[in-house]
């Protein structure tokens, strides 16, 4: 199963559509700050949460289960992710997540802490502290996750990601 992980698109729906078309994921996770009307998001299998800049009535957090794994999705602003990943990790543990997906910092992050994989795809529109906009792809087979990070043109970023088993 292929999962596309994006965040902080900040109104760039056309760019989001291009990435989805190129990657052809089975499911999309958007970690908030989409900053458009909900009906302007692509009509694909998608889990979306509300970011601090969103006005649409979507959940602030969500659980999605796919390929035998449990994903916790949040924007991250309520969990102080710009300071430390620990509060969002603990929330993920509370809800029994294998993978915690968050945004808000606009900075790509990938680390397994204990039994929880923490993933921030960065921002496809306005990177902070990283030289270019990014998104992540997850290939999940038999509870093994291969996480790859990409520039918005699809070029892989080799210094991010990895292979993780659950």
UniProtKB/TrEMBL annotation:
Principal EC category: hydrolase
Chain ranges of the Calcineurin-like phosphoesterase domain: 1-142
Entry keyword set: Metal-binding
Enzyme Commission (EC) number: 3.1.4.-
UniProt-recorded Gene Ontology molecular function terms: hydrolase activity; metal ion binding
Cofactor(s) demanded: a divalent metal cation
Organism domain of life: Bacteria
Family stated for the protein in its record: Belongs to the metallophosphoesterase superfamily. YfcE family.
Protein name (database record): Phosphoesterase
Lineage: Bacteria, Bacillati, Bacillota, Bacilli, Bacillales
